[in-house]
Amino acid sequence: SHARRSAQTALQRIAEGLCRLMAPVLCFTAEEVWSHLPVAGRRCESIHLAEFPAAVNLPEEPQILERWSRLWQVREEVSRALERARQQSILGNSLEAGIILEVEEEMQSFLEGFGSDLRYYFLVSQVSFGPAGEAAYRGEKLTSVRIHVQHAAGTKCARCWMYSTKVGEAQDLPGLCERCVPTVEALRSADVG
Fold first, then answer.
1. Which residue ranges make up each domain of the chain?
2. How far is CA 193 from CA 2, 186, 187, 189, in A?
3. pLDDT value for 181
4. Residue 130, SS3 per DSSP
5. CB contact at 8 A, 159 and 168
6. What is the model's pTM?
7. How large is the angle between the packed helices 62-87 and 105-112, nearest 10 degrees?
8. How many helices (H) and strands (E) does the chain have?
9. What per-residue confidence (pLDDT) applies to 85?
């Protein structure tokens, strides 16, 4: 698939760049890693003959930086709420959590723009919006944000460890969630083909 190929290309470039950067310090390790990397196009036989990666000048996009900075501010508040829940023995780790966010309408619209990926950014299994209740955590820096932490509904996925109410719906992959089933099926079909 296009997404898989894109991820592989990114990982290849990152691995080659890191290998080139660590070569002066970790000579033998870098050489061994270099020998195991797949060859994409022309490449030097030894890492020590390769040049350092060229710096890439990316255009400045302040609106993108602002968007992610704002998300990270909310994420910091979520992390504080999760830590408080851990201390109160409500949950053991963040993937066991389902959170309810009580935020202003504009903030809710902003966060909903991240879609179902929001839970991955917050490192929790479920995110919903609504009244958080009186016992909810109130943000330290973002005081308009209130977060109720509870144990996530559903069952733990055997592959990604996220909790989902849809674990077990796939007959041939009973321990997996709705996100992992298509991934494993794609990997199976790639192995066959």
1. 2-49, 63-153, 163-192
2. 16, 10, 10, 6
3. 93
4. coil
5. no
6. 0.74
7. 100
8. 6, 6
9. 95
The DSSP line for 64-116 is HHHHHHHHHHHHHHHHHHHHHHHHTTS-SSGGGEEEEEE--HHHHHHHHTTGG
Q: Which two tokens stand for residue 111?
A: 């966060």
**Residue 96, CA distances (Å) to 49, 85, 92 in order:** 48, 11, 7
Q: In the numeric block, which tokens belong to residue 104?
A: 């202003």
The answer to whether the beta carbons of residues 139 and 145 sit under 8 Å apart is yes
For the chain, the average pLDDT equals 91
Query: Which residue reads 């290998």 in tokens?
Result: 19
The string of pLDDT tens digits covering residues 59-111 is 888 999 999 999 999 999 999 999 999 999 989 999 999 999 999 999 999 99
Paired sense of beta strands 146-151 and 97-102, if any: antiparallel
Q: What is the pLDDT of residue 68?
A: 94
Q: Are strands 137-138 and 146-151 parallel, antiparallel or unpaired?
A: antiparallel
Determine the topology of domain 63-153 in CATH: hypothetical protein PF0899 fold (3.30.2320)
User: How would residue 115 be classed by pLDDT, with cut points 50, 70 and 90?
Assistant: very high
